[in-house]
Amino acid sequence: MKKMKHLAVSLSMVAAFGTVSVGDAVARDDRNTTVQDGIQVRPLSRWRNVVPEEQLNEAAAQQYTQMMSQAQQKGVLLPPSHPEVQRLRAIAKRIIPQTPRWNELATQWQWQVNLIDAKDVNAFCMPGGRIGFFTGILTSLKLTDDEVAVVMGHEIAHALREHSREKMGKQMGTNAAARIGGALISGIFGIDPNLTNMGAGYLAQFAGLKYSRDDEREADLVGLDIAARAGYDPRAGIVLWRKMAALDKRAPIELLSTHPGGENRIAIMEQHMNLLLPVYARAKGTTAAKLPPYRTNVALR
Q1: Predicted TM-score (pTM) above 0.70
Q2: DSSP alpha helices (H): ranges in the chain?
Q3: Does 44 fall in a domain?
Q4: Is residue 127 part of a domain?
Q5: The domain containing residue 266 runs over which residues?
Q6: Number of domains within the chain
Q7: 3-class secondary structure, 271
Q8: Active-site residue 216, yes or no?
Q9: For 134-193, what is each residue's pLDDT tens digit?
Q10: Any residues with CB less than 8 A from the CB of 127 and at least 6 apart, and which?
Q11: Which of 6, 68, 156, 259 is least enclosed, having the fewest CB within 10 Å?
């Protein structure tokens, strides 16, 4: 009887994996890479269509407004007159015009940029162009304008490529398929459905990690592209991740992380500098060969 139960659990996980693989196949079908000036990206996934765009943008707008309202009540939302807020908004003003080439809907977004006084080394861009920075990422990493532009470009790229919408669609699809698979196996073998659901759920969660790492790599390159077109040095991306590595010596193993490892990201950026530097040089009215070395504001070991 115990062997039969073990078999049932195994089959439920196989069933869940099968449903995820089917979704994977659909994703691969519409994810053949396309090239824009040498930057390869996947076409926007069909999975995002599971979540209505207007509904997602409305929810994001409400969440952003609530977050900023709470920050203001706590006295940590910095005012528009603050030098760092003005700095962020000036950088955004240069980057935003470069965004429609990656998603034409960006011309319709209600862009916002705010800064919260908190130690978090983080930033974000919600669907619809709602950007938030925490002072911790500016002060802890001592970011130059170029490095701020790289962070901002990366976060904006997630919104442009609709990664959150796609992820929500995938989660809804894989979770539903996993529950169906678990219910079928449970009905056939008569075991506790909570057990099969648990196994299927863990497998679906692990499979989702790869999507997130792919999204991060894509956001890195698209973010560098729009930053370079806005006149910010893409080599700042390499320096940024070296600063991040120095700040966090205990980063999680890449296989189990939603983010690629720092060295992996740096290597991919370096591989694309021959494409990004000419774009940046044109924005600066020069050639890649005449660009001076990139300079940050702290010594890197």
Answers
A1: yes
A2: 2-29, 53-73, 83-95, 135-140, 145-160, 163-189, 193-229, 236-247, 262-283
A3: yes
A4: yes
A5: 24-290
A6: 1
A7: helix
A8: no
A9: 999 999 999 999 999 999 999 999 999 887 776 776 666 555 444 544 444 445 555 555
A10: 56, 57, 60, 159, 162, 164, 165
A11: 6
